[in-house]
Amino acid sequence: GFVPDKPVKKEIKFTLEEEELTATIHVKKMNIGEFETLFLGDVEERARTAKAISVCVRLGEDGKEVIPFDKAYKLHPSLAGAMFHALNEVNTVKKTSRPAKGFSAT
Predict the structure, then answer these.
(1) Strands (DSSP E) along the chain, which ranges?
(2) Is residue 33 within a helix (H) or strand (E), and if so which, with residue range?
(3) 68 secondary structure, DSSP code
(4) CA of 39: how far to CAs of 46, 59, 73, in Å?
(5) Terminus-to-terminus CA distance in the chain, angstroms?
(6) CA distance linking residue 53 with residue 1, whole number of Å
(7) Among 4-13, 21-30, 46-55, whose mean pLDDT is lowest?
(8) CA nearest 57: which of 24, 31, 32?
(9) What pTM value is reported for the model?
(10) In what order do the strands lie in the sheet with 65-66?
(11) Which residues contact 81 (CB under 8 A, 6 or more apart)?
């Protein structure tokens, strides 16, 4: 199976200056290449959360507005954390049954 292009709509909650806020974002499901690039790259690489948000989180009514890396890098930690939590919820591999004997993904 291939990862669909349509993002998943998620409501997030975060706090800015002691005010509890909510927002709706759209999170792109990562394919294996994107996942490996984000999480299995060079250990010295920095700003992985900002990179993940830039790659996966979308804004706007239709979920098509990309957050550029330089903007994601400057997000408030509370907002970035809520976005990253939603990203993880959408992209966490759920435990499935084992493939049938003789099945190969290659």
Answers:
(1) 8-16, 19-27, 57-59, 65-66
(2) helix 32-39
(3) -
(4) 11, 23, 17
(5) 12
(6) 24
(7) 46-55
(8) 24
(9) 0.64
(10) 8-16, 19-27, 57-59, 65-66
(11) 14
Determine phi and psi for 26, rounding to 5 degrees: -125, 130
The single residue listed with the structure tokens 């806020």 is: 21
Question: H-helix or E-strand containing 9?
Answer: strand 8-16
What amino acid is encoded at 52 in this protein? A
Do 56 and 63 meet the contact criterion of CB atoms below 8 Å apart? no
Q: For residue 80, give both structure tokens.
A: 């970035």
Q: Give CA–CA dist 78/81, Å, rounded.
A: 5
Residue tagged 């990203």 (tokens)? 87
pLDDT band at 27 (very low <50, low <70, confident <90, very high): very high
